[in-house]
Amino acid sequence: MRPPHAEEGGDSHAALLNKLRAAVLGANDGIISTAGLVMGVAGATTNSAALATAGIAGLVAGALSMAAGEYVSVSAQRDSERALLAKERHELATMPEEELDELAGLLRERGLSADVAHRAAEQMMAHDALGAHADLELGIDQHDLVSPWAAAVSSLFSFAVGALIPLLAMVLAPADVRVGVTVGSVLVALFLTGFASARVGGAPPARAIARNIVGGFLAMAVTFGIGTLVGTQLG
Ligand SMILES: [Zn+2]
């Protein structure tokens, strides 16, 4: 797989990799957060119904929280992009000469000679003035603003898919081995998400995998320890 800044394919290739990376990180969050939760409860009780209830509640609460957070953040980003585009539209309508000079200036900065930049700017203004300014001046693709709903739904599902791994391991494994089965399943899953996120980002995978596995293992160890303490005190 090529790094995200590969030349050809430009925007759509990078955008796809960004989505893929977000999905992998969302699944990673779901794995670690739910693993910590069910391990905490498993430290306190062997009651299967309590474990299943905690795991399902954790999956749903986490997925909804991720979706809501993503919706808010992408909405804010889109609002600010829309405001910038509106301002640009207004400037193009009220001072087209200044905007033409501005565009020519941006093209000169990219290496065109004054003469060529001026003619190119004129042609771009005639073809799609707002699109040219959005792209060169603001770095926004006006036809490709991210949808907050799409972002929310995708983080909801990626978190839920990740969360299913520790939840199913804890609920489906026989009672006497379920802690071990959960730890094992989670570490394998974290190996895979660590590997995938490194590959998507074009980074060497070994460190990403190690960080991910150590982080997840610590999360489970801490919550299991706390669950055991609390269970002993209250049980
Ligand atoms: Zn402009």
Descriptive report:
InterPro entries: Ccc1_fam (IPR008217). One of its GO terms (biological process) is intracellular manganese ion homeostasis. It is a multi-pass membrane protein. This protein has 235 residues and is mainly alpha-helical. 85% of the residues lie in helices and 0% in strands. The chain has one domain (10-234). The chain has helices at 10-44, 48-94, 96-109, 114-138, 148-172, 178-201, 205-234. The termini are far apart. The structure holds zinc ion (ZN). Zinc ion (ZN) binds next to helix 2, helix 3 and helix 4.
Counted beta strands: 0
* Gross morphology: elongated
Question: Largest sheet, described in full?
Answer: none
In percent, how much strand structure appears in the residues? Answer: under 5%
Indicate how many domains the architecture comprises: 1
The helix content, as a percent range, equals: over 70%
Regions with little confidence, pLDDT below 50 for 5+ residues: 1-10
Order of helices and strands: HHHHHHH
Attached small molecules: zinc ion
SS-derived structural category:
mainly alpha
